[in-house]
Amino acid sequence: LVKYWNSDKHDVMKSLKRILLLAMVGLVILLLFVILFEKLIIKTLVGEQEVASLLLYMIVVAQFFLQLALITQKPLELGSKTISMLFILFICIVIHLLITTNFIQSHGLFSVAGSLMVISILYNLLCFIYTRKTI
After folding, report:
1. CA dist., res. 55 & res. 112, Å (int)
2. In Å, how far from its chain's centre is CA 27?
3. Of 4, 8, 27, which Cα lies nearest the Cα of 124?
4. What percent of the chain lies above the pLDDT cut of 90?
């Protein structure tokens, strides 16, 4: 991305789209791995709990998108749009806090994992949309 940023900024969007497509393929492979070894992962991490299965999937997806955010926010970093990045991050943190505080009493850890999954996807979408508009 840095190489394209210095030469032609429109190539950045092409590269970013290609990277996101490859990342989605990676997510499918990661989820297949989790599906195949679900019982072993849960037994190793938390012992014998049926509830942990859904939490595992939610956390894996959320962490995948949080790692992907390091790529989707790169054009904003390179374009010195740090304030915009922080604003997008602030919006996501506020949404995370609202979801978590409103649903933690009724849904427990699911509200935290679900909220993390929602905001990690939202952060990627907002960074990608803002990058498209500014380039």
Report:
1. 10
2. 11
3. 27
4. 7
